[in-house]
Amino acid sequence: MQRWQWGLVALAVAGVAAVVLFALRDGTPHGTRNASRPPPAAVPAPPAAPAAAGASATSGANASADLGFRPNKDGFSFENYGNEGGIANLTDVELRRMFGDAACANLAKGRCKLTPAAKEWMQEVNDSMDGGHCEGLAVLSMLFFTKRAAPSDFGAPSVAALHLEGNPKLQREIAYWYALQEVDPTASSEVADQTPNQVVDRLALAFGAGKPAELFELGIYQPEFQNGHAITPYRIVDRGRGRVAIAVYDSVFPGEERFVEVDRANNTWRYQASDDPAEKDALYEGDAATKTLLLSPLAARLQMHDCPFCGDADEAPAADGRPPRRLQILSRGQAHVTVTDEAGHVTGRQGAALVNTIAGAVIVKLRGRNLRSDDREPMYAVPVGGAYQITVDTSSLASDDHSAVTVVGPGLTFGVAELILPPNQRDSLSVSKDRHTFGYKTAQAHSPELTLGVTTPGADYEFTLRSIGSAGGQTVVLHIDQQQRVLRLQIQSVGGGASQFALDIERIDDEDSELFSHAAIGLGAADVAVLRYGAWQGNGKAVALQIDVGGVGTQTRQVELTDEE
Fold first, then answer.
1. What is the pLDDT of residues 448-481, one digit of tens each?
2. How far apart are CA 488 and CA 550, in angstroms?
3. For 355-369, what is the HEC assignment?
């Protein structure tokens, strides 16, 4: 429900890690499968890799091995791209393919009507592709090469003959393989914490003649895991004198053979992501300590994936011995994001460094950038069952930042979109331990769009509101009681002034969805608005809003809100 078109962001959840799970990852696999999801399809054993004549699989300084892939015939002929020009990304079809029926609120008329959390997660993942689709291009090219997918299904006899423009089926397929980096088992299969020499050894063994192919996508990063980019490795070349090169297909340079240079003696690597060596910001490099050269196995992507947002919003945290579900915090923009728990432990950025002191939390960094200008924070995933404050900080910026932050957990989503934050501002979101109370604090008069969505055994609900408070800022608090089907709202403005808010509701049951909209609802300084959403009778019907004047615990005024849809 995006009738105001303020651009909601979505957030994935529950113990997933986007494909870059670097040294800060705790290694704990995510969550439990949703019972309504079909079992994973059988994954065929990888075929033996076609080896070039004279290839060998050694792990010494003179490593030389060849998978047989070549960019001019096995890579795409078009360049890496963003979301410009009406590109098609994920739809409900891809989410159902990825997670099964658990992603759907209903299947009326043969289509999957996504749950609120699924919809927001999909929107966020789609938005993230605006920086580039390199992850999907790297993976799908290798799937075509190994005959796990056929270019003829997308309109051409060969990979090099495929066209992107006017081919939504191919666009959506690329988006599908991009999105899997967000979820397990793809995310947890990441071969992290490897030195450059160890990466070369692993690839040389995988590409060796006569051995089953262990196929990988290769992730490269600049310092502090900035500008994550995905490329396809296929050959090890001996440069002599202790130097080797990993030949790669890079979707930014279609048809070209590019090389990641590795100095075996010094255990360092470098990659020039430009045809102009003078472009210093295009240089990627690292060493044995940075661990910024990572491998992601192809096999894990061929399985059914764990759903980060499926389940009941009132689902209890995992008991001892079960993998934890997690809340994911995903953001857009250049503002730094940090997550703090009740004990003061922090996961996020402190200055230029990424830190992770929250037990069970992971930091994940998506690969999808177009090599430079990575303006997106990592994804932070924290265990369900804790209370958290999420700070959005623009103190390091010189100009206004357009940001959005969303929290997604089992059966719920809470987010704030259309944030336009000036430099040196700190806004914050909060989530209670029981995931019933959510808050947003801003120093601005005009609050951006807030969204709260819940999945229940009965109908699913999504509430969208926009409030206007005092010039000095405000705090908006939402509390949902799913047993009583009541939503409480309080807006506390700096200076104690009155506020106004607009409200949208979407209800999705097993048959259909219904919408409600009303603008300009007044609320006193200490008043609490009590919305008994369970009593709403559906499309065209009024909603009764009770006002607890002064917040003393008794509803003393009732307002009938007409549907202005």
1. 789 999 998 889 999 999 887 666 788 999 999 9
2. 14
3. EECCCCCEEEECCCC
* Residue at 153 is within a domain: yes
What is the residue range of 183's domain? Answer: 65-81+132-302
For residue 151, which phi and psi values (nearest 5 degrees)?
-60, -25
For tokens 């202005």, name the residue: 564
Phi, psi of 64 (to 5 degrees): -150, 120
CA distance 419 to 231: 33
Q: What pLDDT sits at residue 210?
A: 59
Indicate whether 207 pLDDT > 50: yes
**Residue 342 carries which side chain, given as an amino acid letter?**
E
Strands 216-222 and 113-114, sheet pairing: unpaired
Report if residue 442 sits inside a domain.
Answer: no
Q: Is residue 289 part of a domain?
A: yes
Sheet containing strand 379-383, strands side by side: 362-364, 379-383, 326-332, 401-409, 412-421, 449-454, 460-468, 499-508, 513-523
Whole-prediction pTM? 0.82
- Higher-pLDDT residue of 97 and 46 is 97
* Domain count across the chain: 1
Whole-angstrom Cα distance, residue 104 to residue 106?
Answer: 5
Q: Which one, of 391, 445, 393, lies nearest residue 424 by Cα?
A: 393
Report the candidate in 384, 419, 425, 389 with the shortest Cα–Cα distance to residue 405: 419
In a domain, 329, yes or no: no
pLDDT of residue 323: 62
Question: Residue 401 in contact with residue 5, Cβ under 8 Å?
Answer: no
Model confidence band, residue 212 (pLDDT cutoffs 50, 70, 90): low
